[in-house]
Amino acid sequence: MIESIIRSNKQELHRHFQFGWMGNPELANTIAMSELTVPHLIVLNSTTNHHHIPDDDPVLMTPEAVSLFLDQIHKQTAPAYGGNNWIVHIYRGFFETRTTLINMWRGNPVLTTLVFGLPLGFLSLICYSICCADILDADEDEEITETHEKKD
């Protein structure tokens, strides 16, 4: 469907858009910082690192809806997501960390548990020994024996 839209409006669209296809959704998920369904439509502005995602389900979109969506992007009335500011960088780091941990867990949950469980176990033992040291032992070492004499 997208190919037919490109062919019918080539003169109008080719000046503003370059069209491509991704075989693997991981790159699109990284750009959008969310899990996109397959197939999906995403428009990337490579100069500002903004991306546009249609509100409608891409599978159910008609050619007229896709043309309207591309026209909104060209007129800059469509909502833009992403960018290059520090909030997006922080969220992108959070998303990459979360995605990596989820993929590690799906691949090998036992190894993931060992990789994170053992260091956390040792850290908890260290914190317990620092914070919950027996205070009563210190009093026994410092006992002073005084002799009690009766005064007349």
UniProtKB/TrEMBL annotation:
Any one GO cellular component localisation term in the record? membrane
Q: Where in the cell is it found?
A: Membrane
One Gene Ontology molecular-function label: isomerase activity
Cell membrane among the record's keywords? no
InterPro entries referenced in this protein's UniProt entry, alphabetically = PDI_TMX3 (IPR052250)
UniProt keywords (A-Z) are: Isomerase, Membrane, Transmembrane, Transmembrane helix
Q: What is its main location?
A: membrane
**Taxonomically, which superkingdom?**
Eukaryota
Spans traversing the lipid bilayer: none
Membrane topology of the entry: Single-pass membrane protein
Name listed for the protein in its UniProt record: Protein disulfide-isomerase TXNDC10
Q: Which organism is it from?
A: Pararge aegeria (speckled wood butterfly)
